[in-house]
Amino acid sequence: MEAAEELTARRVVAAVEAERARYVDFLRRRVGPDAEDVYQQSLLKAIERAGAVRDPDQATAWFWRVLRNAVADHHAARVARDARHAALAASEEATPDEAAAACACALGLLPKLPPAYGEMLQRVDVDDERVVDVARDLGISADNAAVRLHRARKALRERLQGCCKASTMRACFECTCADEGRAPG
Fold first, then answer.
1. pLDDT digits 0-9 by tens, 54-100
2. Is 94 exposed, middle or buried (0-12, 13-18, 19+ CB in 10 A)?
3. Domain segments of the chain as ranges
4. What's the CATH fold of domain 3-86?
């Protein structure tokens, strides 16, 4: 970066930082608790592109455009993420008949799974908590929680197949292990 561009970039960043509170308030009204993150991401873009601003006196107007674009990007990303979560949840949900018929071995196997998996299955599948609520309590993203739940269900399915000798989950729903005295192992 040339000296003139660097000077312009510094003036732009200084002008933006001087109005920080106004920008964050603007973002808070539009993106809620993500306001600070969106501001920081926008500031990074501004720093990267500040040398291209021809008139440092127009830095404020230019940064408002950066912020409006960031808000639109944030909402678009949220819509896409929610659509992915809905699709994953729809593909993962058991039918009411399946949920009611689940083999008793499953509850006995929860403590034998990795603790993060056992807790996720207990809270979501047994206690009927929402994945997003569990994610918030655990301090992880909803995406991470959905992946963890998927992996936990897969691990449980594999354990059940080993325990009940069932080749499919449907076969396990008709399990008679408890009647035959076999304990989950």
1. 777 788 888 899 999 999 988 888 888 877 777 776 665 544 444 44
2. middle
3. 3-86, 94-180
4. Rna Polymerase Sigma Factor; Chain: A (1.10.1740)
Mean pLDDT of the chain: 78
Rounded to the nearest 10°, the torsion over CA 168, 174, 180, 181 is 70
Distance, CA of 47 to CA of 74 (rounded, Å):
19
Contacts for 40-49: CB closer than 8 Å, 24+ residues apart: 41/70, 42/66, 42/67, 42/70, 43/13, 43/16, 43/17, 45/70, 46/12, 46/13, 46/16, 47/9, 47/13
Among 75, 18, 66, which Cα is nearest to 43's?
66
Is the full-model pTM beyond 0.85?
A: no
Q: Which of 24-28, 49-53, 156-160 has the lowest mean pLDDT?
A: 49-53
**What CATH architecture does domain 94-180 belong to?**
Orthogonal Bundle (1.10)
